[in-house]
Amino acid sequence: MRRDIFQAIADPTRRAIISLIALQAMTPNAIAENFNTTRQAISKHLRILSECELVKQEQQGREIYYSLEIEKMKEIDQWLSQYREIWQTRFNQLDELLATIKK
Hints:
mainly alpha, Arc Repressor Mutant, subunit A, two-stranded antiparallel ribbon, 2 strands, 12% strand, transcription regulation, WH-like_DNA-bd_sf, HTH_ArsR_DNA-bd_dom, transcription
């Protein structure tokens, strides 16, 4: 089943995994050490993130390392940018209103 990237980031554990591997590539065991859950649960989260192409796998010897796929993160950022612009406009309007009230 093909998953949507927004379904993937909806889960707090998967967002935490993304944060971890954004800093450096990690093995599933190294990732699992940061959570109070089973290695199998982390593997399931990694599979979902891989299906959405948010993470990529790289074989190094006997280990598999997961790292963040930056291009997919840019898709999320582009989608959010439309709302960021709306929020920024509203904050600017609020600043102007507060400045007017303060005078």
